[in-house]
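Field reference: "sequence" (input) and "structure" (output). Example, DUF2520 domain-containing protein:
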Amino acid sequence: MRIGFIGAGKVGFTFGRYIAEKRELVREKTDGALCLEVGGYFSASRQSAELAAEFTETCVYDSLEQLCEYSEIIFLTVPDGQIGEVWKSIKDLDIRGRIICHASGAMTSDIFSGITEAGAFGYSIHPMYAISSKYESYKELDNSFFTVEGDDRHVDKVCSVIRALGNSCVRIDGTDKVKYHGAAVFASNLVTGLLAVSQELLTQCGFSAEEAQRAIVPLFLGNAKAAADRGTVDSLTGPVERCDTETVRKHLNALSGDERSAYAAVSRCLVPVAERKHPDRDYSGLIHLLNGIGEFNYEEHDGNTQADEGNRQEDIHDHSV
């Protein structure tokens, strides 16, 4: 199966090199039943296509017509906002029997309007991995989970190709695509936002920007590794896990604006995790505090319940962040 890429950015570079590197492995795993070949690239920028072709040891197509003629799978690896326009450029070409894919996390295969009439089959294929480098990200795709959404007729074939590459793959419904992408954003981009807030708060405490970076990174990576290795429930530590309402109140008093709102919102998300870890604890006082942002003055509000105090005493020697 020859694969052609329209678009020579980070995703095109990464997918192309990753598939090219895995070609012999796929052939061996399938006893020769599946042969993948990266044909080459077409891009609005000839130079970008040439660089991608050089990186993957493939070719540059001179036109969309040529790429469509020689490709069984056509991957639109362009920014989300350009997928529709690129599709319009190829939908009237001879693409009968072709599998047309894009790699958007949020968009579905519905962007390929009229694809059935064109005799082709549309899919969205997305790796749960942040592709950040044209030349390095392909090295990290081995453990990435992929999702596939699209036409029933060849979806099993598409999934089998991804699994032959060595990746796990799940099919999702188009109606769930935006929620799925939101889940990925929570685990990726929003975590970066929280890290930025943390570093900013440290600079307000007298750290230089470089010192704040060095101080936070070991904590950040250690917690991420613990959550990845042991799961969110077993790895959870900190004042929400301890039901330390007084510390949470002090944090809220020290923060303002978006920082305080983010702290409260994420803490509310942590409470159910803490409740699963300690089903015998009463988190009602903490929940009331977090739900009451903007409704009362935290310093004037009566402190913790007896249950809160008991929980803090129980964890007095466990003041993990």
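The chain has two domains: 2-174, 187-314.
The radius of gyration is 25 Å.
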